[in-house]
Design a protein that fits this description.
By secondary structure, the protein is mainly alpha-helical. The chain is about 45% helix and about 5% strand. It has a two-stranded parallel ribbon. Helix 11 links the parallel strand 1 and strand 2. It is globular. The two termini are about 30 Å apart. About 10% of the residues have low confidence.
Length: about 270
Amino acid sequence: ALLRRTQADDFGALLDVEQTLVAGGALRGAQRAYIERVLALGDPHAHVPGVDASAHDASAPRSLHAALRVLCLCALWRGDAKALDAWRDEVVAAFGHHHAATLRSLERAGLLPRQPPPGGAALRRALNLVAEGDDVGFAYAGYVPLAVRLLQVLAQDPAVSPDSRYALLRPKAPAAGPGGGVRGGWAGWEDVLAQIPGALVDIAQVPADADARRLGAAAPATLVVFLGGCTSAEIAAVRRLSQLHAHRYIVATTEVLNGNALIDPLVQHR
């Protein structure tokens, strides 16, 4: 199923649109034409991979979820208000008037803002979220998940890679030696973290000697918890980081989901 999906005609076009939006680039004519085609060929009854157990991968481009994912990415990273207003109208026309409520739900959740968040470009630059040749970004073809970059910040170890590629993270506190794992808090990164929605909680826990002996000094580990869920690609990126850092990162999550499953609870059903 994965091979069929990646070899489908639309896969490369959709990936190209997503990468351009996340990188902050302007959509080209062919990319806009692809989005228009996704909306024009919309099928209200299309199966949704990752949500519908009977889904067929070939139907993914025609589903409402595919159109909504592109719209959300455009709103979050580009904020082309004129195009977005037109595409909103086309979503309602193609999939049904009741999806006006779906669009409102996405707005309230912060996934379809009228204006892009002001910190998006700053986060992309400061954390080097789009980096060609970065091993950690292999799962997203160059995009490094925000959570994984934050984990690298906590490790404070730019020397972990021989070519010093992690020096791009600009840690403002001195490196604490080789290896991975949490080396400190968020000191020096407050300006970057302020651009991320939500409150920051920074609590330093010092384990008792008994806990340290039980864990084993030769096999330190860091527990990375995703509340609300994460994707398989994010887990793969953490695994790759574990290899690069020679450190055990253990992922715990409330759910493993994809983009369709993330959006589905906000979709208004008849």
